Amino acid sequence: MYNIENKDWKGQIEGADDYWYVNDRQKPNPLKTNRQKTAILASKLKEANRNYGKAWIDNMVTLSYPNSFQPLCGRKLQI
Q1: Domain locations along the chain
Q2: Buried b (16+ CB within 10 A) or exposed e, 15-53
Q3: How far is CA 71 from CA 11, 24, 41, 50, in A?
Q4: Which InterPro entries does the record cross-reference, listed alphabetically (predicted)?
């Protein structure tokens, strides 16, 4: 199962471990926040049915607006 969060952010996007910057505006790293949401989803599914707890849930963030993505300080972000 996949938990996919789409971002349709227009402009320049730069990313680091804790924050991403969209047109120089700081935003929480969506990979981290989606990972937390995925953990919550997994626990809710397990509460609903123990067999659902065996399901693998992967998370990802997609960028749908044509942008350029550049890691901060030359560090590459592992996606």
Answers
A1: 2-74
A2: beeeebbbeeeeeebbbeebeeebeebbeebeeeeeeee
A3: 15, 13, 29, 40
A4: NERD
Q: Name the residue among 37, 53, 34 with its Cα closest to residue 45.
A: 53
Most distant pair of Cα atoms in the chain: their distance: 45
H or E stretch covering 14 = strand 13-15
Mean pLDDT by 10 residues, the chain (79 residues): 93 90 95 96 93 89 76 55
H or E segment and range at residue 48:
helix 30-48
Its pTM stands at: 0.72
Q: What is the C-alpha to C-alpha distance for residues 39 and 26, in angstroms, rounded to an integer?
A: 24
- Strands 13-15 and 19-22 come out as antiparallel
